[in-house]
């Protein structure tokens, strides 16, 4: 969708340039034919028509820009992992270099007995990112990805990536320079886009700290690039840097294993890991993956999630059935076949009506209860109370199901309005909504926690270092009375 918007904006820019050129040409013709005064009068009408055209183009572009916002909101209501993999088994492949081989061994130890995952026992290698034929090897990697079943991809590279690049004219780009970081960013982004066509869930593991201080500083800059590109491509970035540091934040070959015992985690080269280190390395991926597996499992029970075959697996006795072609509701049901809804029979045993089955609405289910009371005269009286269960629109059912199955999405506010109507609104925190309206790199979360930008301090707050000091506008506290002298 962003590519379509970019193409639309490009076409509209060309159209604006073409119309401006036509106006200038017509202006020169009018001046030569009618003179300056008449030419100006005619040009006023031309410019008004041009403004109307530009306004129509702006409206079309605004409508197109609204599409990604809705798409992002829809994606936020789903899990990171698909709830319905083929045969209910997630196909897992580890990609990368020497780091990935040790990571694969740790993941096999962590998930060896988990029947939900089928972990390939060999990694799919990713060549050195600084190689001269990077583009050709990336295309070959795309073909490998497309030719294998894949639901979850775990990627870790960087063991030998701290090498100089070559510019198109053959010049050497020094490691760590601004030009090197720019080329590294381009290549990392190209690698990440190789997984897009497969539509797999990608966990991208960052670099650990190293023994050499210069390599350590470069690794942090490379992690910043990986973190940013993973965020923009919709992948999960696994930060392991702090997991292998000592109490002062420096490099240490020793550290606690998963049971708390101090073990040797790094080998003598100051780069790679021991067997205990690889198990600890896999632990960071394991935490994220287990959490996503739990969330995907909970979303399997959402009434509006999954096609008929998928709902039949988890709810065999209560799934929506496709009507026979001869059924009178076959035509109406076919229009809603893409949005099956799980429903049960009413309290009186009657099945849902055809109108309810076609629209997804839940019909009214009223009832009565009988109470025996003691009247004012001391005699027993019987009173019947009607219990009203009004029909529930499909939109309300979808709102409640999405809120229950997609994790914390905000607060549900219920308010009674005039005419006996109930207003239900889902209030979502701004942090989750800004992604659909702002560029991802301009979201407050990304600017503060990823880029490390400083918040604008409020007057009087502890981080306000302006001089002279301003009055505290964040509290109603009054200044203390001056201490009397003498």
TrEMBL record:
Does this entry carry the keyword Transmembrane? yes
| Top-level taxon | Bacteria
Low complexity biased stretches: 323-335, 344-361
* Positions with biased composition (Basic and acidic residues): 450-464
Gene3D superfamilies this protein is in?
Answer: SGNH hydrolase
Please provide the record's keywords in A-Z order: Membrane, Transmembrane, Transmembrane helix
The molecule here is called SGNH hydrolase-type esterase domain-containing protein
Q: State the organism named in the record.
A: Hyphomicrobium denitrificans 1NES1
């Amino acid at each position: 969708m962003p590519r379509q918007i970019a193409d639309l904006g490009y076409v509209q820019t060309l159209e604006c340039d073409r119309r401006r050129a036509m106006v200038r040409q017509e202006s020169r013709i009018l001046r030569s034919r009618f003179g300056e005064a008449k030419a100006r009068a005619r040009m006023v009408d031309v410019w008004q028509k041009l403004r109307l055209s530009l306004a129509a183009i702006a409206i079309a572009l605004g409508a197109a820009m609204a599409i990604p916002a809705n798409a992002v909101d829809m994606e936020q209501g789903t899990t990171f992992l698909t709830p319905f993999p083929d045969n209910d088994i997630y196909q897992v492949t580890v990609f990368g270099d020497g780091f990935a081989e040790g990571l694969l061994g740790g993941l096999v130890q962590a998930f060896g007995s988990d029947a939900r995952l089928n972990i390939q026992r060999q990694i799919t290698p990713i060549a050195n990112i600084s190689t001269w034929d990077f583009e050709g090897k990336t295309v070959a990697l795309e073909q490998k990805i497309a030719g294998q079943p894949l639901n979850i991809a775990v990627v870790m590279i960087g063991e030998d990536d701290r090498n100089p690049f070559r510019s198109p004219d053959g010049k050497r780009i020094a490691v760590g320079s601004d030009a090197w970081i720019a080329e590294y960013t381009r290549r990392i982004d190209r690698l990440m886009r190789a997984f897009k066509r497969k539509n797999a869930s990608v966990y991208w593991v960052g670099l650990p700290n190293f023994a050499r201080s210069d390599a350590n500083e470069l690794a942090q800059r490379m992690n910043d690039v990986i973190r940013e590109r993973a965020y923009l491509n919709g992948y999960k970035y696994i930060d392991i840097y702090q997991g292998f540091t000592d109490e002062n934040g420096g490099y240490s070959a020793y550290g606690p294993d998963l049971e708390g015992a101090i073990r040797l985690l790094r080998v003598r080269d100051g780069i790679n890991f021991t067997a205990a280190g690889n198990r600890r390395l896999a632990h960071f991926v394991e935490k994220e993956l287990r959490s996503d597996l739990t969330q995907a499992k909970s979303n399997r029970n959402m009434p509006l999630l999954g096609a008929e075959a998928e709902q039949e697996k988890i709810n065999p006795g209560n799934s929506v059935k496709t009507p026979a072609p001869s059924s009178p509701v076959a035509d109406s049901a076919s229009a809603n076949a893409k949005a099956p809804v799980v429903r049960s029979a009413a309290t009186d045993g009657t099945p849902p009506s055809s109108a309810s089955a076609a629209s997804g609405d839940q019909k009214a289910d009223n009832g009565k209860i009988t109470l025996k009371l003691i009247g004012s005269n001391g005699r027993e009286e019987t009173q019947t109370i009607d219990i009203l269960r009004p029909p529930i629109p499909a939109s309300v059912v979808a709102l409640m199901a999405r809120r229950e199955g997609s994790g914390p999405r905000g607060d549900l506010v219920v308010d009674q309005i005039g005419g006996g109507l109930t207003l239900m609104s889902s209030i979502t925190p701004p942090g989750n909504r800004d992604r659909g309206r702002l560029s991802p790199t301009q979201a407050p979360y990304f600017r503060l926690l990823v880029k490390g930008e400083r918040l604008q301090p409020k007057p009087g707050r502890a981080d306000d270092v302006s001089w002279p000091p301003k009055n505290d506008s964040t509290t109603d506290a009054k200044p203390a009375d001056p201490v009397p002298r003498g």
